[in-house]
Design brief:
The structure holds two protein chains of two kinds. Chain A has no helices and eleven strands. By secondary structure, chain B is mainly beta. Chain B is built from no helices and eleven strands. In chain B, strands 2, 4, 5, 6, 9, 10 and 11 form a seven-stranded mixed beta sheet that branches. Chain B has a four-stranded antiparallel beta sheet with strand order 1-3-8-7, with no helix packed on it. In chain B, strand 4 and strand 5 form a beta hairpin. Chain B is globular. The chains are: A mainly beta, B mainly beta. At the A-B interface, strand 5, strand 6 and strand 10 of A face strand 4, strand 5, strand 9 and strand 10 of B.
Chain lengths: 109, 114
Amino acid sequence: AQRVTQPEKLLSVFKGAPVELKCNYSYSGSPELFWYVQYSRQRLQLLLRHISRESIKGFTADLNKGETSFHLKKPFAQEEDSAMYYCALLSGGSYIPTFGRGTSLIVHP
Amino acid sequence: NAGVMQNPRHLVRRRGQEARLRCSPMKGHSHVYWYRQLPEEGLKFMVYLQKENIIDESGMPKERFSAEFPKEGPSILRIQQVVRGDSAAYFCASSPPTGEYEQYFGPGTRLTVT
């Protein structure tokens, strides 16, 4: 069975500081991994997926199969980045992602 | 395209009553998913439906919970005889029939059982 672990419930940083939201997974096959974001009073939305290898809003995430991690990073945090971030895994052939419990990012001015 | 719609946004029920949560998927989407988010926990999958079919209900409690996605109209998540432990945020997501990975989420319904 697959599992997604986000070890930090809360991450608090100051504006301009680097930020890294951790995500570790357990799955024996080749997973698809995603980061979803939920801004205050907004719906959950896809931020990025590992296959696309793109940077969205300055965020990047690299899949590290050796460490089974998919950490989300941004070199300089902005106040508008404050939100809940969820890491999710999709196993081969499945439509149903497994979500981590989420990390609340607070960026202070 | 208005996106995935859920109503009501907030629902208060007394113990023993029934709760009905509605989800209208995005236009052109025929796959619907329901998730529950308990306080301090992540999103937990409940059920996956296509029009008139339940595809996967492995995350659904065996009793009191049911879901449907009729040919016409929204998907309904029904909770009978609610208990305090059912208090949670319930999210619906939809995806198109082409097998795309991305799910589009609704704003959620927050159920409070008093």
